[in-house]
Specification:
Blueprint lengths: L2 H22 L3 H13 L8 H5 L20 H12 L11 H4 L24 H10 L9
Length: 143
């Protein structure tokens, strides 16, 4: 009887060890400089990601920008990084909710995103930026 619970504990511990290593491959500076501004950007015909996701009660909840501020504080950006990193499987764009949820279904995205099709295709420059970050790119490098 003890082999079952022990095997379960080992499996859980193994999974917990893998997750942080994956998150470490995502670059905070790239996120802050190039990814985070996308969430505040107004795209024609769409609401900014921030408008819905600062008030959301789901996995993609952004920090609220202080009244009168145009961007997040360093502390808020770090919390956003932690939150958004959980929506990415580094190196596996197709499994990264950050990339699939707002992408048009015709381009391989999820049809259940309440915020609409923020990205009509994978050729959208902002989608490409998100993909570069999710793929582990760092500032000043290209893959």
């Amino acid at each position: 009887m003890r082999a079952g619970p022990l095997a379960l504990i080992v499996a859980i511990a193994t999974n917990l060890q893998v997750a942080p290593a994956s998150a470490q491959s995502l670059d905070y500076e790239f996120f802050k400089a190039r990814v985070e501004p996308i969430f505040l950007k107004k795209k024609p015909g769409h609401t900014r990601c921030y408008v819905c996701h600062a008030e959301s009660n789901n996995a993609f909840r952004l920090e609220k920008v202080s009244p009168g501020a145009r961007a997040w504080t360093e502390e808020q950006s770090r919390r956003n990084f932690e939150t958004v990193s959980r929506l990415v499987v580094p190196g596996n764009l197709a499994a990264s909710r950050l990339l699939i949820m707002p992408l048009a279904p015709e381009a391989g995205g999820n049809s259940f995103h309440n915020g609409g099709r923020q990205f009509e295709s994978k050729d959208d420059p902002d989608w490409k930026t998100l993909a570069q970050w999710a793929d582990g790119q760092k500032p000043g490098t290209s893959k």
